[in-house]
Amino acid sequence: MAFRPSQHNRTISVGLAAILLVTVASFLGRNAAAASTTRSRREMMQQTNAQSSDAWLLQMLAGMRSPLSKAESDRFAELYKKTGSVGDLCEAGKLYCDAKSFNLYYQNLLQFDGKKQEKDISVFFRETELVVGREISIEDPRLQSAALEKNRLQLAEFDTPSGSVGMSKYNYLNVAKMPERSFLPAELAQTLPFSSDSAVKVFQLDPSSILAQESAKTFQICQEGIHKDGTTELNGEAAACATSLEALQSLVRSPMLLGPHDAANVKALSTDERLHSGSSFRGKVVEVSLEASVEQRHAVCHNLMYPSAVYFCHYLPRTRVYSVMLQPLDAAGAQQRHLVRAIAMCHMDTTGWNPRHLAFQNLLTLPGHGEACHWVLQGSMTFVPTA
């Protein structure tokens, strides 16, 4: 089931944070040694490209496909219609309904950065960082996640009833690695309610638990089309949510997000999961490809927290999408052979963003003064039409 915004599209400018991908660039040599180096790098690039985003996407989605057969799905649907209960659906459907476990997961997230202040954790950067030959550092995705979540809590604390500071209550939990869970089958997703209290009523979650609260926020984002991180309305955004794998595939094929396009010619981009190894990354930029300019349509889908898998997909105008190939450097500064790819998004207009947003703490600037770029985190997917 796909949910379209019931009111004007809103901006989604969240710190998404971290994820690090490395990749390669070719150099033309003028002698035999340089030519050998060039061939070596081309070989590495071919190896990296062989692990295509499309293949990664299909693999990821396959892992989130519901394990339920049609007969099992129909049985749970009938059970809910008759009793209002879903029985052992959480276990049988590989959903995530353990509120106590999620509370512990969340507390560990907030404590991960220790005494380091979130403003000192680099999540956002300038577009000028994306230059071939430049050495860059990417914070541990877990540190980025902790900084983003603490900033989200600060924005909510200072939010005003009028929403003039940014309506940060609509911010969503954005971490480098969400708890694993599957989609519901399409028919079952259409049968079960999806509402502000459905996680409590359907999956029997404690309403005071963090998991129940985050699930309610997920519905609010999907139903109202609001995805805010202290931003004001951004005209031109298109947004919708998918509560099943089939709905997600339909969103990518539809013109709502990507505009009129050939569904067979859509490139799926993702950050190399090797950049989520649980440590900071240091490397050199070897290739930068502009995948979508500010005039081009694209879609980014984010994994939102709910007992079953739910994705929020949106198109953001005035945003550039880059594919960046990075070559890792070891502690001594020596280049390592393998390359990784990272996807970066640059929001070219930050006018209207909450001035307390982490982006301005990182960049030492104010809303409307320059762009704010970030790496697209693991679990998020970017789609760009190629024809």
TrEMBL record:
Stored InterPro entries: BURP, BURP_dom
Residue ranges of every copy of the BURP domain listed in the record: 146-386
Pfam families attached to this UniProt entry: BURP
Superkingdom of source: Eukaryota
PROSITE patterns found in the cross-reference section: BURP (PS51277)
Name of the protein in its database record: BURP domain-containing protein
